[in-house]
Specification:
The structure holds 2 protein chains of 2 kinds. Chain A is mainly α. Chain A has 6 helices and no strands. Chain B has one domain. In chain B, a hairpin with a 4-residue loop joins β1 and β2. In chain B, α2 packs antiparallel against α3 and α15 packs antiparallel against α16. The longest helix of chain B has 32 residues. Chain B starts with 8 loop residues before the first helix and ends with a helix. The chains are: A mainly alpha, B mainly alpha. Chains A and B meet through α4 and α6 of A and α6, α7, α8 and α10 of B.
Chain lengths: 166, 484
């Protein structure tokens, strides 16, 4: 089963690098681990035969967005972060315990209940963008249009909140 | 290729209100771009858009329609909520007149535009018949709210609450999406009726994945309507947001969250429901108790009202737990009354605020001698929130409690009544401060004629629904029958 081995390999890297993004104190390192996370996600898409999504993941996320991220982080020249005071004494220990409990609880349920799951009806295999486009403009027309509204709101919000003089 | 199986002109006609609202928002933004700075004009355009959308809703009629191949399902239930959102949006626009300038921000066209977008998002949430549409509506609403909460760009508190809401909201969105994905994996569809028929026909591939999916969906919803223990964001966000936005935030989106939750749990997961009763029971008790106890110790009025709205959400969960026609109609009635009371209370607080600091109880001392009319109005809203007859708050609580008793949840109602008694303390604290402490106060609230008229209308609603609730009860029972 080399393919499933490949999947576990990619998934391990994805989860590991995601944890490192959060734990790292240096913003540049965090950004680089995020790139690694995106690459491993793209690999999982490849294994699912969603070639187009894999390419988009690398182009848009790992490429465009992360380069911008890195530039901003470097240009801002962040100093050492200051630790915020904790409200409760054992806040960190308590939160860590809850996270671990939740993570293992959910994974246990998933492992125990693992069985076959429904597969998507529309296959994007053999690199076909056509099927994706057709789905977006027929069955998912309304969600597609609402998503455009969503992006418009995000755009308005960003410009309003971030522009120095409006 | 035959496109008519996916959408026809009647599908487009069904979403006329959304189209009108989108166009209005775009016109408002264009006016802003063309530097039309008269706030009256922008307000007039936005308000007429809302009214026009309401007319389109009436024109569309209230017969059941399934649109876009099962993406939306219109019936009296969705229509009831649509009118609530339009009404709350209109009132928020009117109350916001002049408030932003008072807080040191210039009038901006983005503000009414974002409120319109939020209304569209909420309408999609309760019209949805598919998890994909619920998610998109929820996100459209949330994104607009993140910006509205942080709208006072030069106010640190507003910035903080906007960022906090964004970060925690994104986290909750992750839960919701994961839940939707697991539900899809187990049932093979995201359509509500599809999920229900898959569960009924036993074609669910993995029961455990389905339950996990429902649980994650519940966490996503619980965050959005601020049920304990997912309520931690609400006091900070309510305090930092511009007060008119807070009034909007704690009424319409909460109604939308409960509406979508009712629809998901009554249409999509009815078969899986019995296993979930205990969880709703615990959520209801936890939410009302935590909200009430925390509200007792607040000194800031907006934070107090935030926790009070958490406890009201706890009472509303009782209605979902009961889940029969009486329970659902009680929830609908409660949502209307709750919206009227909270909109009025926050509007008066926004009038009383004078600078960027939000008000504490002490600052309300002696307000009654300064401005007897506004103090009287605020006192009426507080009495109604506490649930005293002859106000509508009493009838609303009575409806929920009696529905729960009829289903045999005696202990739940006992806890709820005890909670209500506790809540008297903080609601009456503000009245005591206004009337019984004579001190020179710095607050000088002033009202425009329009705002005063709307406040009078809200007070009239509170009393009319408190004395003769029959008419609205008939409507809510009809609407509840349509979904169950």
């Amino acid at each position: 089963m080399p393919l499933s081995l490949l999947f576990y390999f990619a998934a391990l890297i994805a989860v590991g690098s995601a944890i490192l993004v959060v734990l790292n104190r240096n913003a540049v390192y965090s950004a680089i681990f995020l790139v690694l996370c995106f690459f491993s996600l793209a690999m999982i898409y490849l294994l699912l035969e969603a070639y187009f999504l894999a390419v988009l993941e690398i182009f848009i996320y790992a490429g465009a967005i992360m380069v911008l991220f890195l530039f901003v982080v470097m240009l801002l020249n962040l100093g050492r972060e200051k630790a915020l005071p904790h409200f409760m004494k054992f806040q960190r220990a308590l939160s860590l315990m809850l996270v671990i409990l939740f993570f293992f609880g959910v994974s246990l349920i998933m492992v125990v209940g693992s069985g076959e799951l429904h597969q998507p009806t529309i296959k994007f295999s053999s690199g076909s963008v056509y099927a994706l486009g057709e789905a977006l403009f027929t069955k998912f027309l309304l969600p597609f249009e609402v998503a455009s509204l969503l992006l418009l709101v995000a755009l308005i919000g960003t410009v309003y909140l971030a522009k120095r003089k409006i | 290729m035959d496109l008519s199986q996916y959408f026809t002109s009647s599908d487009i006609a069904g979403i006329t209100p959304e189209i009108i609202l989108t166009l209005t928002a775009l016109v408002v933004l264009t006016l802003e771009m063309a530097r039309v700075f008269r706030p009256g004009i922008i307000l007039l355009v936005a308000a007429s858009g809302l009214v026009l959308a309401g007319t389109a809703l009436v024109q569309g009629g209230n017969d059941d329609k399934i649109l876009f191949g099962g993406m939306l399902y219109l019936n009296t239930f969705s229509m009831f909520f649509d009118f609530l959102y339009l009404f709350v949006g209109l009132l928020t626009l009117i109350f916001s007149q002049g408030y932003l300038e008072k807080m040191g921000s210039e009038t901006r066209g983005e503000y009414p535009a974002l409120i319109l977008f939020a209304v569209i998002g909420m309408m999609l949430m309760t019209r949805a018949n598919d998890l994909v549409m619920v998610f998109l509506g929820l996100e459209l609403l949330s994104l607009s709210l993140y910006v509205l909460v942080g709208f006072l760009r030069h106010n640190l508190l507003s910035n903080e609450s906007g960022l906090k809401y964004l970060l925690l909201g994104a986290f909750a969105t992750g839960f919701f999406l994961f839940g939707a994905a697991l539900t899809f994996g187990a049932t093979g569809t995201t359509n509500f009726s599809g999920i229900a028929s898959a569960i009924a026909a036993g074609t669910v591939l993995s029961e455990i994945y389905l339950y996990l999916g429902i649980g994650f969906l519940l966490i996503g919803f619980a965050f959005k309507v601020a049920l304990a223990p997912f309520h931690m964001w609400s006091p900070d966000v309510y305090q930092g947001a511009p007060t008119t936005v807070t009034g909007f935030l704690c009424t319409a989106p909460k109604a939308a969250g409960f509406g979508a939750m009712l629809k998901v749990f009554m249409i999509a997961f009815p078969e899986a429901f019995p296993e979930w009763q205990d969880i709703f029971w615990v959520l209801a008790v936890l939410t009302m108790t935590v909200g009430n106890i925390s509200a007792l110790v607040q000194s800031n009025v907006k934070r107090m009202l935030a926790f009070s709205s958490v406890s009201h959400a706890g009472y509303l969960v009782m209605g979902i737990l009961v889940k029969d026609i009486a329970g659902v109609s009680a929830v609908l009635f409660y949502l209307i009354v709750y919206s009227a009371m909270n909109l009025g209370a926050f509007a008066i607080i926004s009038l009383a605020e004078k600078d960027e600091q939000s008000l504490t109880f002490k600052q309300f001392r002696g307000l009654a001698s300064q401005n007897p009319l506004l103090s009287g109005a605020l006192a009426i809203f507080m009495v109604s929130l506490a649930g005293f007859p002859p106000t509508a708050g009493f009838i609303a609580k009575y409806g929920l409690f009696s529905a729960a008793i009829a289903k045999g949840y005696i202990w739940l109602v006992v806890i709820a009544v005890l909670n209500t008694v506790v809540s008297f303390y903080y609601y009456f604290r503000i009245i005591v401060n206004m009337y019984m402490r004579d001190e020179k106060v710095g607050l000088q609230p002033s009202t425009g004629l329009l705002t005063a008229g709307i406040l009078a209308l809200l007070i009239a609603i509170v009393f009319i629904l408190g004395i003769t609730p029959g008419y609205l009860l008939e409507i809510t029972v009809d609407v509840a029958t349509a979904v169950s």
